[in-house]
Design brief:
The complex is a heterodimer of chains A (408) and B (245). Chain A is an all-alpha fold and 408 residues long. Chain A is built from 14 helices and one strand. In chain A, α7 packs antiparallel against α8, α9 packs antiparallel against α13 and α10 runs antiparallel to α12. In chain B, β4 and β5 form a beta hairpin. Chain B folds into two domains: 32 residues; 191 residues, Alpha-Beta Plaits. The chains are: A mainly alpha (408), B alpha+beta (245).
Chain lengths: 408, 245
């Protein structure tokens, strides 16, 4: 139940969680301060790998933020009742992840003190500038959406506002994918496929985050997920994981087919040392095969298996983004095709990158910010999904709850 | 004016006028002096879109063991000699070897000053910009250090300032946390001088001039010999052209 009914033991557990979150957040802010003082020289980034581990964290959170709202959209836009009761939690997680992701992105800037410049100077040809609008608009729309969901008098506006949020986040993730999709010169990027690929990745990663938070909240409150709901949510996650794998495979296959991309594909999938390893083991096995097994194997498919599958989807997400963002930059630019290039500036060489502690702490700090927003939000407001269980018994079909019980 | 009113004495009038002029001079002179300092000694000239600055690099004249252009660039812009991947490098010598024939050559590579620069397109704040005369620059006042331009540039022509900067050339302001790259020595150009690398090249392998002027030496040379653009397939219309590649 909500925070009001918590027992003293729950209360101390809550404060312990908040304390832990604050500690990690502080470590992240400390890392930011150190990097601001010394410059990015103390990071693992350089003039070839210009976006490093902080971007892996930031893009993961921003993509997952968009996807986690899918749960609310299925309820509000597509009218599925079991998702309606989950809409407020979905909205909160969206805000938390978006906040955490943007925090990392902003604090990794070379001149974070100039953030006001980013808000006052726009180059409308830049997909980054579009994203400034998309991200701030997302905050406003989801906040409004939460208000419509949680204020009984405003419930009648849930559908139109939910629809706007649904469209907005599709555009937002298109924008995030296009940050890479619009890069003409690098083999790893520059593809229209990246926009829809990011959207489908957001569905999988967002739902995985939702499942983990939901299972933690249920465990906290001694509740169990109804088998009918479990089945629906795990199957949905399975479909999203498979669809992501389809997009990733198609992207690589397209590149493999183009002769000029073949060397890069060989690097990233076979010969590139740590990158193929992370791709196949981290994304392929842990992020795709394992969750699909956990979800669809007849002997598994329990609530615990779904949580485990969700965790492995998130590990796979980090692996995929690491290979995509850092491996993609490690491959040298082919400035003079047909020639082998060398210079004192790393031309023709695979760039080296070792993530530094400040980068890791900054990324974790963003995760801690998202964690804190969620933990405190769940404590002070009513976000726990409550299902009208009698409605579910005896049927596997879509449980239809009376409209009055919608969204709390 | 009534007939009984006497006009002021001319001497007194002159004295008053002189005093006022002296007072005005004292009050305004420092301001005028400041304006003079701010605008430099020469009359300010704006970059003209009638001009497009460009460079022709002749790979057949560029010697593999010479890096006079790099040294000149580093000295002019007070850049450290690049030793680490985090050090800035605005101009570098790239050795090339034909993958099929084994033919070797060496060329300087820097910002190609594209007519359709990817770095300008992607920059969220407009800090990356193209001057009217085609020079692509970074406005250090509004660069937020996001490095998206470095992701977008096909030539690895931009560097991020990873560490605090000391010993700056006052005419080439730099700063930690900003992105920078070849300016075609815009500060020299605006004084009527050539870019430092062009001036330093002992082999005359770098020809600088106005691509829009059909009578300029560079235009005439471009008409006479076969040249290419780096990554011409991208259609960025570079201001730097290569011969002998």
């Amino acid at each position: 139940m909500s925070g009001h009914d918590l027992k003293p033991a729950d209360s101390s557990r809550f404060y312990a969680l908040v304390g832990l979150g604050l500690l990690v957040l502080l470590a992240g802010l400390g890392a930011f301060h150190t990097m601001e003082e010394h410059g990015h020289i103390i990071s693992g980034m350089n003039n070839q790998i210009v976006w490093g581990l902080p971007h892996v964290f930031a893009i993961f959170m921003i993509v997952a933020a968009s996807g986690v709202l899918n749960v609310a959209s299925i309820g509000s836009v597509f009218g599925k009742t079991i998702y309606k009761t989950r809409a407020p939690l979905s909205g909160l997680l969206c805000l938390a992840l978006l906040g955490g992701g943007l925090m990392v992105l902003l604090l990794d800037l070379g001149r974070p003190d100039r953030i006001i410049v980013a808000a006052t100077h726009y180059n409308f040809r830049s997909v980054f500038a579009w994203n400034v609008f998309l991200y701030s608009g997302m905050f406003a729309i989801v906040a409004l959406y939460l208000w419509m969901l949680m204020e009984r008098r405003m419930n009648r506006y849930v559908k139109p506002v939910g629809f706007v949020a649904f469209i907005w986040r599709l555009v937002l993730t298109t924008g995030t994918g296009s940050i890479f999709g619009f890069l003409v010169a690098r083999e790893a990027y520059g593809s229209a496929m990246l926009a829809p690929m990011f959207i489908i990745m957001s569905f999988a990663w967002g739902l995985a985050v939702f499942n983990i938070v939901q299972s933690a909240m249920f465990a906290w409150n001694g509740m169990t997920l109804h088998p009918a709901i479990l089945r629906r949510m795990k199957n949905l996650l399975g479909v999203f994981v498979a669809a992501t794998a389809y997009f990733v495979a198609t992207h690589h296959l397209t590149n493999l087919y183009f002769a000029r991309q073949a060397d890069f594909e060989y690097f990233i999938l076979v010969d590139g040392g740590v990158y193929p390893l992370i791709f196949w083991l981290g994304y392929g096995v842990v992020g795709t095969v394992l969750p699909l097994l956990l979800i669809f194997h007849p002997a598994l498919g329990t609530a615990r298996a779904m949580t485990a599958a969700s965790v492995s989807v998130l590990l796979g997400a980090f692996a995929l983004l690491y290979v995509f963002i850092i491996g993609g930059q490690a491959w040298p630019l082919d400035i003079f095709p047909g020639y082998a290039a060398s210079s004192r500036f790393g031309d023709g060489l695979i760039a080296a990158y070792t993530p530094s502690l400040p980068e890791l702490l900054l990324g974790l700090g963003g995760m801690a910010a998202a964690f804190l927003i969620t933990t405190v939000g769940v404590r002070i407001l009513h976000f726990l999904p409550e299902d009208d269980l009698p409605q579910f018994d005896g049927g596997g079909s879509e449980p239809n709850l009376p409209a009055a019980s919608h969204g709390a | 004016m009534s007939a009984g009113h006497k006009p002021p004495l001319p001497a007194r009038r002159a004295l008053l006028a002189g005093g006022a002029a002296a007072a005005l001079s004292v009050a305004l002179a420092p301001g005028i002096r400041l304006i003079e300092i701010a605008s430099g000694n020469e009359a300010p000239t704006l970059a003209s879109s009638k001009v497009r600055w460009g460079m022709l690099i002749d790979a057949t004249r560029c010697s593999a063991d010479c890096d006079a252009c790099v040294t000149a660039c580093n000295q002019e812009n007070h850049l450290p000699t690049a030793a680490a991947p985090t050090d800035p490098q605005w101009l570098r010598k790239v050795s090339l070897k034909d993958l099929k024939t084994g033919r070797s050559l060496s060329v300087p590579v820097m910002c190609q000053h594209c007519a359709k620069p990817a770095c300008v397109d992607v920059c969220p704040t407009g800090a990356s910009f193209k001057r009217a005369d085609g020079i692509v620059l970074v406005d250090r006042h509004i660069c937020i250090g996001c490095r998206y331009c470095m992701m977008a540039c096909p030539y690895k022509a931009r560097s991020f300032v990873h560490a605090p900067v000391t010993d700056q050339n006052p005419q080439v302001p730099r700063g930690k946390g900003c992105v920078e790259g070849c300016t075609l020595c815009v500060h020299r150009l605006d004084r009527g001088q050539l870019p430092a690398c062009v001036e330093a090249c002992p082999n005359q392998a770098m020809l600088f001039g106005d691509l829009n002027d059909p009578d300029s030496a560079i235009s005439q040379r471009l008409r006479a010999i076969a040249t290419t653009q780096a990554r011409a397939d991208l259609g960025l219309d570079t201001g730097v052209r290569y011969h002998g590649i």
